[in-house]
Amino acid sequence: MRFFRDIKDFILSYKYPLDKYFLVSFPKTGRTWLMHMLDDLQNKGKQKIDIEYTHDMSEIIIENGYRQDPNILFNYNHRYRYRRSKVIFLVRDPRDVIVSHFYQVTRRSKNPFVFNSISEFVRHKIYGFERILFFYNMWYKQKCLPKGFLLIKYEDLINDGVNEICKITKYLNLDVSLDQIKDTYINFTAKKMRNKEIKDNLDLFNASGGDKNSLKVRNAKVGGYTNELNDADIQFCKSKMENLSTFFDYN
Question: How far apart are CA 77 and CA 79, in angstroms?
Answer without folding.
Answer: 7
